[in-house]
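Query structure, 212 tokens:
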């Protein structure tokens, strides 16, 4: 079923965008035009949310020096935060580190967190919103799909939440009642990663009706 869908995307731009989106970790320095960036942010705001709470706020960094300072600060506190997260969620944290650290090392020390992207969108939500994680995930997906449809690339950056533990966090001007959930980097990618294998046995019909 999945193979058939992948091989027949002609005429369906939505499916084409979904299947062609990749996590890109190498970018040109070219800045995104304001009108294009605004369209991407508007798409993020169109995501569904619990009780239409729309809990997200976007804090956007576009200056190369600012982004580099954020990246450097996060790298410095990552060992401490990794230990802390491992103690709380050992299996999940180890899996994350095994997946993300090779990409960080591959960056060669030059912006290992945000990978040279010209735009970083930090996404926050109220600290007391128990559904915020789900809402932010859908919002971030909208951002990334919109970016792909407009000829840009993107990548979700989970390590970005550690910005809160750094001395430069105040530069984001995030109020006390909010917390950084995630960041999404945007820009014109200079790599085209191959798709990772997808699970083939994760669709379970509990009462499937025959259509014919």
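Result returned for the query:
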């Amino acid at each position: 079923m999945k193979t058939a869908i992948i091989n027949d995307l002609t005429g369906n731009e939505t499916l084409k965008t979904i299947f062609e989106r990749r996590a890109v970790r190498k970018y040109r320095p070219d800045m995104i035009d304001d009108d294009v960036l605004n369209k991407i942010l508007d798409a993020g705001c169109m995501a569904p949310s619990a009780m239409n709470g729309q809990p997200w706020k976007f804090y956007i960094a576009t200056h190369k020096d600012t982004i580099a300072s954020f990246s450097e600060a996060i790298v410095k506190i990552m060992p401490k935060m990794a230990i802390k997260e491992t103690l709380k969620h050992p299996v999940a944290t180890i899996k994350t580190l095994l997946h993300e650290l090779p990409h960080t090392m591959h960056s060669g020390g030059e912006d290992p967190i945000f990978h040279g992207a010209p735009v970083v969108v930090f996404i926050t939500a109220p600290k007391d919103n128990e559904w915020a994680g789900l809402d932010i995930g859908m919002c971030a997906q909208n951002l990334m799909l919109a970016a792909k449809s407009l000829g840009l690339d993107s990548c979700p950056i989970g390590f970005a939440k550690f910005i809160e533990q750094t001395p430069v966090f105040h530069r984001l001007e995030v109020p006390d009642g909010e917390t950084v959930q995630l960041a999404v980097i945007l820009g014109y990618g200079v790599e085209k990663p191959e798709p990772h294998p997808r699970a083939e046995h994760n669709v379970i019909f509990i009462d499937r009706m025959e259509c014919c």
